Amino acid sequence: MKPSIFNTFLPLSGGDYLLFNTLSGTIVTVDEEMKSILENEAGESGNIDENSLENLRELGVVTGEDTDERAFFEYKFQEKKFSTRDVQVSVLLTYACNLSCSYCYEGRGEVISKSMDKETSEKVIKCIMNTVDDSGCRNLGLTLYGGEPLLNYRQGLEILEKLSLYCKERDVRFKAALISNGTLIDRRIAGLFSPYLNAVQLTLDGPRWYHDKKRVRKDLTGTYDRIMESVSILKESGIPVFLRVQISKDNLGLLEELFEELKSRGFGSDPLIKPYVFPLMNIGEAGCLPGSECIPDNDYAEILPEVWEKAAGYGLSLVSKPVPTYIQPFCSFFNNYSYIIDPYGDIYKCVSLVGKKEHKAAYIDDGGRIAGQTYEMIEFMSRNPARIEKCRDCPYLPTCSGGCAFKAYSGNESFQSGDCSLHKSLEERKILAYLKYSQPGFPGDGDE
Protein backbone atom coordinates (compact mmCIF):
# COMPACT_ATOMS: atom_id res chain seq x y z
CA MET A 1 0.00 0.00 0.00
CA LYS A 2 1.03 3.62 -0.56
CA PRO A 3 -0.51 6.98 0.40
CA SER A 4 -2.81 8.61 -2.15
CA ILE A 5 -1.26 11.49 -4.08
CA PHE A 6 -4.57 13.33 -3.62
CA ASN A 7 -4.46 13.52 0.18
CA THR A 8 -4.50 17.05 1.58
CA PHE A 9 -4.03 17.99 5.24
CA LEU A 10 -5.57 21.00 6.94
CA PRO A 11 -4.48 21.90 10.49
CA LEU A 12 -7.18 21.94 13.17
CA SER A 13 -7.19 23.43 16.63
CA GLY A 14 -5.85 20.92 19.18
CA GLY A 15 -3.05 19.60 16.98
CA ASP A 16 -5.07 17.26 14.75
CA TYR A 17 -5.51 17.52 11.00
CA LEU A 18 -8.38 17.26 8.59
CA LEU A 19 -7.54 14.84 5.79
CA PHE A 20 -9.45 15.57 2.59
CA ASN A 21 -8.89 13.20 -0.30
CA THR A 22 -9.91 15.11 -3.41
CA LEU A 23 -10.28 12.00 -5.60
CA SER A 24 -12.65 10.03 -3.35
CA GLY A 25 -14.18 12.96 -1.44
CA THR A 26 -13.20 11.37 1.89
CA ILE A 27 -13.01 13.65 4.93
CA VAL A 28 -11.49 12.25 8.13
CA THR A 29 -9.62 13.63 11.14
CA VAL A 30 -6.11 12.28 11.77
CA ASP A 31 -3.44 12.93 14.38
CA GLU A 32 0.14 14.02 13.83
CA GLU A 33 1.43 10.46 13.77
CA MET A 34 -1.01 9.31 11.10
CA LYS A 35 -0.31 12.44 9.07
CA SER A 36 3.43 11.70 9.16
CA ILE A 37 2.84 8.11 8.02
CA LEU A 38 0.57 9.19 5.15
CA GLU A 39 2.95 11.93 4.02
CA ASN A 40 5.80 9.45 3.76
CA GLU A 41 6.10 8.44 0.13
CA ALA A 42 7.37 5.02 1.19
CA GLY A 43 4.06 4.53 2.91
CA GLU A 44 5.37 2.95 6.13
CA SER A 45 2.11 1.02 6.15
CA GLY A 46 3.68 -1.47 8.54
CA ASN A 47 2.95 1.04 11.30
CA ILE A 48 -0.79 0.69 10.67
CA ASP A 49 -2.76 -2.37 11.74
CA GLU A 50 -4.47 -4.41 9.02
CA ASN A 51 -8.03 -3.32 9.87
CA SER A 52 -7.11 0.36 9.84
CA LEU A 53 -5.15 -0.11 6.61
CA GLU A 54 -8.14 -1.75 4.95
CA ASN A 55 -10.42 1.09 6.10
CA LEU A 56 -8.00 3.64 4.68
CA ARG A 57 -7.90 1.74 1.41
CA GLU A 58 -11.69 1.74 1.15
CA LEU A 59 -11.67 5.50 1.79
CA GLY A 60 -9.11 6.05 -0.97
CA VAL A 61 -6.56 7.42 1.50
CA VAL A 62 -4.09 4.66 0.61
CA THR A 63 -3.87 2.73 -2.66
CA GLY A 64 -2.14 -0.29 -4.09
CA GLU A 65 1.54 0.03 -4.98
CA ASP A 66 0.79 -0.28 -8.70
CA THR A 67 -2.27 1.99 -8.73
CA ASP A 68 -2.01 4.98 -11.06
CA GLU A 69 -4.42 7.50 -9.53
CA ARG A 70 -3.89 10.04 -12.28
CA ALA A 71 -4.98 7.45 -14.83
CA PHE A 72 -8.03 6.66 -12.70
CA PHE A 73 -8.96 10.36 -12.56
CA GLU A 74 -8.38 10.80 -16.29
CA TYR A 75 -10.62 7.81 -17.06
CA LYS A 76 -13.44 9.08 -14.80
CA PHE A 77 -13.09 12.61 -16.22
CA GLN A 78 -13.29 11.41 -19.82
CA GLU A 79 -16.14 9.07 -18.96
CA LYS A 80 -18.16 11.97 -17.57
CA LYS A 81 -17.25 14.23 -20.47
CA PHE A 82 -18.46 11.78 -23.10
CA SER A 83 -21.32 10.27 -21.12
CA THR A 84 -24.62 10.04 -23.01
CA ARG A 85 -26.72 9.90 -19.84
CA ASP A 86 -27.22 13.66 -19.46
CA VAL A 87 -27.77 16.41 -22.00
CA GLN A 88 -27.63 20.05 -20.84
CA VAL A 89 -28.62 22.82 -23.25
CA SER A 90 -28.86 26.54 -22.61
CA VAL A 91 -30.96 28.61 -25.00
CA LEU A 92 -30.33 32.34 -25.18
CA LEU A 93 -33.76 33.64 -26.22
CA THR A 94 -32.60 37.22 -26.77
CA TYR A 95 -29.58 39.44 -26.43
CA ALA A 96 -31.90 42.35 -25.58
CA CYS A 97 -32.32 43.51 -21.99
CA ASN A 98 -34.57 45.97 -20.17
CA LEU A 99 -31.91 46.81 -17.58
CA SER A 100 -28.75 48.89 -17.72
CA CYS A 101 -26.44 47.46 -15.05
CA SER A 102 -23.15 49.33 -14.79
CA TYR A 103 -21.00 46.19 -14.89
CA CYS A 104 -23.08 44.20 -17.43
CA TYR A 105 -21.38 41.09 -18.81
CA GLU A 106 -23.34 41.30 -22.05
CA GLY A 107 -23.25 44.97 -23.02
CA ARG A 108 -26.69 45.81 -21.52
CA GLY A 109 -28.41 44.36 -24.58
CA GLU A 110 -27.10 47.28 -26.64
CA VAL A 111 -24.07 45.71 -28.31
CA ILE A 112 -26.29 42.93 -29.72
CA SER A 113 -30.09 42.94 -29.37
CA LYS A 114 -31.15 40.05 -31.62
CA SER A 115 -34.12 37.96 -30.40
CA MET A 116 -34.84 34.40 -31.48
CA ASP A 117 -37.62 34.21 -34.07
CA LYS A 118 -40.11 31.37 -34.52
CA GLU A 119 -38.23 29.82 -37.43
CA THR A 120 -35.03 29.62 -35.39
CA SER A 121 -36.80 28.34 -32.29
CA GLU A 122 -38.29 25.52 -34.34
CA LYS A 123 -34.79 24.57 -35.51
CA VAL A 124 -33.59 24.74 -31.92
CA ILE A 125 -36.37 22.41 -30.76
CA LYS A 126 -35.56 19.96 -33.56
CA CYS A 127 -31.84 20.14 -32.76
CA ILE A 128 -32.40 19.33 -29.09
CA MET A 129 -34.76 16.49 -30.01
CA ASN A 130 -32.09 15.10 -32.36
CA THR A 131 -29.52 15.35 -29.58
CA VAL A 132 -31.81 13.43 -27.20
CA ASP A 133 -32.39 10.73 -29.81
CA ASP A 134 -28.76 10.48 -30.95
CA SER A 135 -27.36 10.34 -27.42
CA GLY A 136 -30.02 8.08 -25.96
CA CYS A 137 -29.88 10.29 -22.85
CA ARG A 138 -31.99 9.69 -19.76
CA ASN A 139 -31.96 13.30 -18.56
CA LEU A 140 -32.46 16.54 -20.47
CA GLY A 141 -31.69 19.82 -18.73
CA LEU A 142 -32.75 23.08 -20.37
CA THR A 143 -31.89 26.60 -19.24
CA LEU A 144 -33.46 29.73 -20.74
CA TYR A 145 -31.59 32.99 -20.42
CA GLY A 146 -30.57 36.18 -22.22
CA GLY A 147 -30.30 39.21 -22.16
CA GLU A 148 -33.61 39.10 -20.39
CA PRO A 149 -35.32 35.93 -21.67
CA LEU A 150 -38.82 37.07 -20.68
CA LEU A 151 -38.61 39.80 -23.33
CA ASN A 152 -39.08 36.85 -25.70
CA TYR A 153 -41.09 34.59 -23.42
CA ARG A 154 -43.43 33.23 -26.11
CA GLN A 155 -40.59 31.45 -27.92
CA GLY A 156 -39.27 30.20 -24.59
CA LEU A 157 -42.66 28.86 -23.61
CA GLU A 158 -43.03 27.07 -26.95
CA ILE A 159 -39.62 25.43 -26.51
CA LEU A 160 -40.55 24.27 -23.00
CA GLU A 161 -43.94 22.92 -24.02
CA LYS A 162 -42.68 20.90 -26.99
CA LEU A 163 -39.57 19.51 -25.29
CA SER A 164 -41.50 18.62 -22.15
CA LEU A 165 -44.00 16.60 -24.18
CA TYR A 166 -41.25 15.04 -26.29
CA CYS A 167 -39.36 13.85 -23.21
CA LYS A 168 -42.50 12.52 -21.58
CA GLU A 169 -43.23 10.39 -24.63
CA ARG A 170 -39.70 8.95 -24.52
CA ASP A 171 -39.49 8.50 -20.75
CA VAL A 172 -36.65 11.04 -20.52
CA ARG A 173 -36.47 13.12 -17.36
CA PHE A 174 -36.90 16.81 -18.23
CA LYS A 175 -35.73 19.62 -15.96
CA ALA A 176 -35.85 23.30 -16.90
CA ALA A 177 -34.56 26.52 -15.38
CA LEU A 178 -34.88 30.22 -16.14
CA ILE A 179 -32.21 32.86 -15.51
CA SER A 180 -33.96 36.23 -15.28
CA ASN A 181 -33.43 39.69 -13.85
CA GLY A 182 -36.83 39.27 -12.17
CA THR A 183 -38.43 42.52 -13.31
CA LEU A 184 -40.93 40.97 -15.75
CA ILE A 185 -42.22 38.12 -13.61
CA ASP A 186 -45.88 38.48 -12.65
CA ARG A 187 -48.58 35.96 -11.74
CA ARG A 188 -49.55 35.46 -15.38
CA ILE A 189 -45.97 34.67 -16.41
CA ALA A 190 -45.48 32.44 -13.36
CA GLY A 191 -48.68 30.59 -14.20
CA LEU A 192 -47.59 30.00 -17.79
CA PHE A 193 -44.13 28.73 -16.83
CA SER A 194 -44.84 26.89 -13.57
CA PRO A 195 -45.75 23.56 -15.25
CA TYR A 196 -42.25 23.37 -16.71
CA LEU A 197 -39.76 25.18 -14.48
CA ASN A 198 -37.76 23.46 -11.76
CA ALA A 199 -35.90 26.62 -10.78
CA VAL A 200 -35.47 30.33 -11.47
CA GLN A 201 -32.27 32.25 -10.82
CA LEU A 202 -32.52 35.90 -9.78
CA THR A 203 -29.74 38.28 -8.76
CA LEU A 204 -29.25 40.84 -5.99
CA ASP A 205 -26.33 43.24 -5.76
CA GLY A 206 -26.66 44.19 -2.11
CA PRO A 207 -29.11 45.92 0.23
CA ARG A 208 -31.94 47.89 -1.38
CA TRP A 209 -30.26 51.31 -1.50
CA TYR A 210 -27.07 49.89 -3.05
CA HIS A 211 -28.76 47.43 -5.38
CA ASP A 212 -30.97 50.22 -6.76
CA LYS A 213 -27.86 52.11 -7.85
CA LYS A 214 -26.34 49.16 -9.71
CA ARG A 215 -29.13 46.96 -11.11
CA VAL A 216 -31.29 49.57 -12.79
CA ARG A 217 -33.75 49.89 -15.65
CA LYS A 218 -32.99 51.93 -18.74
CA ASP A 219 -34.52 54.96 -17.01
CA LEU A 220 -32.13 54.32 -14.07
CA THR A 221 -34.89 53.40 -11.62
CA GLY A 222 -34.10 50.63 -9.13
CA THR A 223 -35.31 47.03 -9.21
CA TYR A 224 -34.88 45.66 -5.67
CA ASP A 225 -38.53 45.74 -4.62
CA ARG A 226 -39.66 44.35 -7.96
CA ILE A 227 -37.25 41.41 -7.63
CA MET A 228 -38.47 40.67 -4.11
CA GLU A 229 -42.02 40.72 -5.43
CA SER A 230 -40.98 38.18 -8.06
CA VAL A 231 -39.49 35.94 -5.37
CA SER A 232 -42.87 35.95 -3.59
CA ILE A 233 -44.76 35.21 -6.81
CA LEU A 234 -42.47 32.32 -7.70
CA LYS A 235 -42.74 30.92 -4.20
CA GLU A 236 -46.55 31.05 -4.39
CA SER A 237 -46.33 29.15 -7.67
CA GLY A 238 -44.12 26.48 -6.08
CA ILE A 239 -41.09 27.35 -8.22
CA PRO A 240 -37.72 27.15 -6.38
CA VAL A 241 -35.62 30.31 -6.50
CA PHE A 242 -31.83 30.45 -6.55
CA LEU A 243 -31.00 33.93 -5.31
CA ARG A 244 -27.54 34.92 -6.50
CA VAL A 245 -25.87 37.60 -4.39
CA GLN A 246 -23.25 39.33 -6.50
CA ILE A 247 -20.09 40.23 -4.58
CA SER A 248 -18.06 43.22 -5.71
CA LYS A 249 -15.19 45.26 -4.34
CA ASP A 250 -17.48 48.04 -3.17
CA ASN A 251 -20.31 46.05 -1.59
CA LEU A 252 -18.32 43.82 0.77
CA GLY A 253 -19.00 46.05 3.76
CA LEU A 254 -22.71 46.16 2.95
CA LEU A 255 -23.53 42.46 2.72
CA GLU A 256 -24.53 42.06 6.35
CA GLU A 257 -27.28 44.59 5.78
CA LEU A 258 -28.55 42.42 2.92
CA PHE A 259 -28.18 39.21 4.95
CA GLU A 260 -30.26 40.76 7.73
CA GLU A 261 -32.96 41.54 5.17
CA LEU A 262 -32.87 38.00 3.76
CA LYS A 263 -33.08 36.56 7.29
CA SER A 264 -36.06 38.77 8.15
CA ARG A 265 -37.85 37.40 5.08
CA GLY A 266 -37.16 33.82 6.20
CA PHE A 267 -34.97 32.99 3.21
CA GLY A 268 -32.44 31.05 5.29
CA SER A 269 -34.97 28.38 6.24
CA ASP A 270 -37.31 28.44 3.25
CA PRO A 271 -36.86 25.23 1.18
CA LEU A 272 -37.96 27.04 -1.99
CA ILE A 273 -35.38 29.84 -1.72
CA LYS A 274 -31.65 29.14 -1.90
CA PRO A 275 -29.35 32.18 -1.62
CA TYR A 276 -25.74 31.83 -2.77
CA VAL A 277 -22.88 34.21 -3.45
CA PHE A 278 -20.65 34.63 -6.46
CA PRO A 279 -17.89 37.16 -7.20
CA LEU A 280 -18.34 39.78 -9.88
CA MET A 281 -15.63 38.75 -12.34
CA ASN A 282 -13.93 40.42 -15.24
CA ILE A 283 -14.76 38.18 -18.20
CA GLY A 284 -13.58 40.35 -21.06
CA GLU A 285 -14.80 43.18 -23.24
CA ALA A 286 -18.41 42.97 -22.08
CA GLY A 287 -17.43 42.58 -18.44
CA CYS A 288 -16.12 44.98 -15.84
CA LEU A 289 -13.94 47.84 -16.92
CA PRO A 290 -10.44 48.14 -15.42
CA GLY A 291 -10.53 49.69 -11.97
CA SER A 292 -14.22 48.89 -11.50
CA GLU A 293 -15.91 46.77 -8.87
CA CYS A 294 -14.81 43.35 -10.16
CA ILE A 295 -13.17 41.05 -7.59
CA PRO A 296 -9.53 40.29 -8.55
CA ASP A 297 -8.90 36.57 -9.07
CA ASN A 298 -6.24 36.42 -6.35
CA ASP A 299 -8.66 37.73 -3.72
CA TYR A 300 -11.30 34.99 -3.90
CA ALA A 301 -9.70 32.82 -1.20
CA GLU A 302 -9.74 35.68 1.29
CA ILE A 303 -13.04 37.35 0.41
CA LEU A 304 -15.42 34.41 -0.08
CA PRO A 305 -14.75 32.68 3.30
CA GLU A 306 -15.30 36.03 5.02
CA VAL A 307 -18.66 36.36 3.25
CA TRP A 308 -19.62 32.77 4.16
CA GLU A 309 -18.82 33.53 7.79
CA LYS A 310 -20.98 36.66 7.80
CA ALA A 311 -23.87 34.88 6.12
CA ALA A 312 -23.75 31.98 8.59
CA GLY A 313 -24.33 34.48 11.39
CA TYR A 314 -27.71 35.23 9.81
CA GLY A 315 -28.68 31.61 9.32
CA LEU A 316 -27.70 31.52 5.64
CA SER A 317 -25.67 28.50 4.52
CA LEU A 318 -23.79 29.54 1.39
CA VAL A 319 -21.04 26.91 1.08
CA SER A 320 -21.16 23.28 -0.01
CA LYS A 321 -18.68 20.43 0.16
CA PRO A 322 -16.15 20.30 -2.69
CA VAL A 323 -16.62 17.12 -4.74
CA PRO A 324 -14.67 15.55 -7.60
CA THR A 325 -15.68 17.00 -10.93
CA TYR A 326 -16.35 13.57 -12.38
CA ILE A 327 -19.28 13.49 -9.94
CA GLN A 328 -20.42 17.11 -10.22
CA PRO A 329 -18.73 19.21 -12.94
CA PHE A 330 -18.50 22.93 -12.21
CA CYS A 331 -18.70 23.73 -15.93
CA SER A 332 -22.12 22.98 -17.42
CA PHE A 333 -20.81 22.63 -20.96
CA PHE A 334 -17.79 20.34 -20.73
CA ASN A 335 -19.99 17.37 -21.67
CA ASN A 336 -19.99 16.41 -25.33
CA TYR A 337 -23.78 16.71 -25.47
CA SER A 338 -24.06 20.07 -23.75
CA TYR A 339 -23.95 23.43 -25.48
CA ILE A 340 -25.37 26.96 -25.72
CA ILE A 341 -27.60 28.14 -28.57
CA ASP A 342 -27.95 31.86 -29.28
CA PRO A 343 -30.79 33.71 -31.09
CA TYR A 344 -29.07 33.24 -34.46
CA GLY A 345 -28.99 29.47 -34.01
CA ASP A 346 -25.22 29.54 -33.45
CA ILE A 347 -23.69 27.14 -30.95
CA TYR A 348 -21.09 27.98 -28.30
CA LYS A 349 -19.36 25.94 -25.60
CA CYS A 350 -18.71 28.70 -23.08
CA VAL A 351 -21.19 31.22 -21.68
CA SER A 352 -18.44 33.84 -21.46
CA LEU A 353 -17.84 33.63 -25.23
CA VAL A 354 -21.44 33.72 -26.46
CA GLY A 355 -21.98 36.33 -29.16
CA LYS A 356 -18.32 36.46 -30.15
CA LYS A 357 -18.48 35.02 -33.64
CA GLU A 358 -14.80 34.12 -33.68
CA HIS A 359 -15.54 31.67 -30.86
CA LYS A 360 -18.58 30.03 -32.45
CA ALA A 361 -18.30 26.25 -32.13
CA ALA A 362 -20.96 25.26 -34.70
CA TYR A 363 -24.43 26.20 -35.94
CA ILE A 364 -27.82 24.55 -36.40
CA ASP A 365 -28.65 23.78 -40.02
CA ASP A 366 -32.14 23.83 -41.56
CA GLY A 367 -32.66 20.18 -40.66
CA GLY A 368 -32.04 20.81 -36.98
CA ARG A 369 -28.60 19.22 -37.05
CA ILE A 370 -25.39 20.58 -35.55
CA ALA A 371 -23.16 21.53 -38.47
CA GLY A 372 -20.03 23.50 -39.28
CA GLN A 373 -18.06 22.43 -36.23
CA THR A 374 -15.07 24.70 -35.80
CA TYR A 375 -11.66 24.17 -34.25
CA GLU A 376 -13.04 26.00 -31.21
CA MET A 377 -15.30 23.02 -30.50
CA ILE A 378 -12.45 20.56 -30.92
CA GLU A 379 -10.02 22.48 -28.72
CA PHE A 380 -12.61 22.97 -25.96
CA MET A 381 -13.69 19.33 -25.93
CA SER A 382 -10.15 17.95 -26.11
CA ARG A 383 -9.13 19.81 -22.94
CA ASN A 384 -7.60 17.25 -20.58
CA PRO A 385 -6.48 18.57 -17.18
CA ALA A 386 -4.54 15.38 -16.45
CA ARG A 387 -2.23 16.32 -19.31
CA ILE A 388 -1.82 19.99 -18.37
CA GLU A 389 1.63 20.41 -16.82
CA LYS A 390 0.65 22.84 -14.05
CA CYS A 391 -2.33 20.68 -13.09
CA ARG A 392 -1.30 17.02 -13.30
CA ASP A 393 0.70 17.00 -10.05
CA CYS A 394 -1.65 19.24 -8.08
CA PRO A 395 -3.50 17.45 -5.21
CA TYR A 396 -6.62 19.47 -6.08
CA LEU A 397 -6.77 18.20 -9.66
CA PRO A 398 -9.91 16.04 -9.06
CA THR A 399 -11.98 18.92 -7.61
CA CYS A 400 -10.62 21.52 -10.01
CA SER A 401 -10.04 19.77 -13.37
CA GLY A 402 -7.83 22.56 -14.58
CA GLY A 403 -10.18 25.31 -13.45
CA CYS A 404 -12.26 27.55 -15.69
CA ALA A 405 -11.52 26.88 -19.36
CA PHE A 406 -12.42 30.45 -20.30
CA LYS A 407 -10.10 31.98 -17.72
CA ALA A 408 -7.35 29.60 -18.83
CA TYR A 409 -7.91 30.68 -22.42
CA SER A 410 -7.96 34.37 -21.47
CA GLY A 411 -4.63 34.08 -19.67
CA ASN A 412 -2.84 31.80 -22.12
CA GLU A 413 -4.76 32.02 -25.42
CA SER A 414 -5.33 28.28 -25.24
CA PHE A 415 -7.90 26.00 -23.64
CA GLN A 416 -5.08 23.51 -23.12
CA SER A 417 -3.88 25.33 -20.01
CA GLY A 418 -4.92 25.62 -16.38
CA ASP A 419 -6.49 28.29 -14.20
CA CYS A 420 -6.26 28.25 -10.40
CA SER A 421 -8.31 31.34 -9.53
CA LEU A 422 -11.59 29.70 -8.48
CA HIS A 423 -10.32 26.51 -6.92
CA LYS A 424 -6.78 25.80 -5.78
CA SER A 425 -6.55 28.75 -3.40
CA LEU A 426 -10.10 28.27 -2.17
CA GLU A 427 -10.63 24.53 -1.68
CA GLU A 428 -9.04 24.31 1.78
CA ARG A 429 -11.10 27.23 3.06
CA LYS A 430 -14.23 25.79 1.48
CA ILE A 431 -13.97 22.38 3.11
CA LEU A 432 -13.29 23.90 6.53
CA ALA A 433 -16.20 26.31 6.16
CA TYR A 434 -18.50 23.51 5.00
CA LEU A 435 -17.75 21.41 8.09
CA LYS A 436 -17.92 24.36 10.44
CA TYR A 437 -21.38 25.43 9.29
CA SER A 438 -22.84 21.96 8.67
CA GLN A 439 -21.52 20.15 11.77
CA PRO A 440 -22.03 21.95 15.10
CA GLY A 441 -19.04 21.47 17.35
CA PHE A 442 -16.53 21.07 14.53
CA PRO A 443 -13.16 22.13 16.03
CA GLY A 444 -12.21 24.64 13.34
CA ASP A 445 -8.84 25.38 11.84
CA GLY A 446 -5.51 25.99 13.48
CA ASP A 447 -5.79 29.77 13.31
CA GLU A 448 -8.70 29.91 15.72
TrEMBL record:
GO molecular function, one term: 4 iron, 4 sulfur cluster binding
Cofactor: [4Fe-4S] cluster
Boundaries of every Radical SAM core domain copy: 83-322
InterPro entries: 4Fe4S-binding_SPASM_dom, Aldolase_TIM, MoaA_NifB_PqqE_Fe-S-bd_CS, rSAM, rSAM_sf, Sulphatase_maturase_rSAM
Domain of life: Archaea
Keyword Iron-sulfur belongs to the record: yes
Protein name per its UniProtKB record: Radical SAM domain protein
Annotated source species: Methanolacinia petrolearia (strain DSM 11571 / OCM 486 / SEBR 4847) (Methanoplanus petrolearius)
